[in-house]
């Protein structure tokens, strides 16, 4: 039986620094891996590289693979999380260019780098590595439903790519600043690349997903907090199964609901309107009580990235009054964020 604590993926075993690959995407939300590494592991990122048709930038220096290698880069990291985790044929010339320039490839997609013959053959010929981080531990247990010691917080969302990872990282940092024993528990490829450990929940066979969530946050001291990165949405037409398994297996004592101000429809699913924050809270608590009857919602993490600071402050205050709970944008420090942290720890 595997250890209850998932085996670490230490950042320093990955060839660094990274050149972030943005493919040919035109929707910034699909570059969440690149944005996450830029924001939380900037010291490991040397630049960005995109296909000719790419329209997204994360604001890093634009470098070719050869330029990045000359500047010391060790690998090209695929910074895209597109629907289905595909590696389209249009990317292959760029990925081959990186291998030819002397870079290893690091991927977190459902499609495995090693499963693409042209990349596998080129890597073998050039002595380069193909590294897939979206590999769950082997022989994960089925969920037991047993209540574990310690405290847990799970970020849940009204949609994908809405701020669950950033919220968990900010809350983990805020807890640590208060002297609290805390671990950030990564559940997706970006979080794993940032934290150096975790379990890619959406790559786990469904029967073992709740068990993986249990293994992710094992028994701990009474005052220890695991802050767990949420995935998907309980309302998502494609990804709700991952969200539910994570909710049941995490057995969170506290949830924080993440929402983006102004988003009207599920990302990539224009026929599906986004659920309301209140509906998300109600459903998460109702389903979460199955494995932790004491679950509670501490508040709302509101993504206000499209708003000016004064507008964001007004919206945050209005939503807090309307919902009757703590509301904050985790990327905007101040009294609202302090109130959300305090509500989590109450």
Automatic annotation (TrEMBL):
Domain D-glutamate N-acetyltransferase-like N-terminal: residue ranges: 57-136
One Pfam match: DUF1611
SUPFAM superfamilies: P-loop containing nucleoside triphosphate hydrolases
InterPro entries attached to this UniProt entry: DgcN-like, DgcN-like_C, DgcN-like_N, P-loop_NTPase
D-glutamate N-acetyltransferase-like C-terminal domain residues: 142-336
Protein name according to UniProt: DUF1611 domain-containing protein
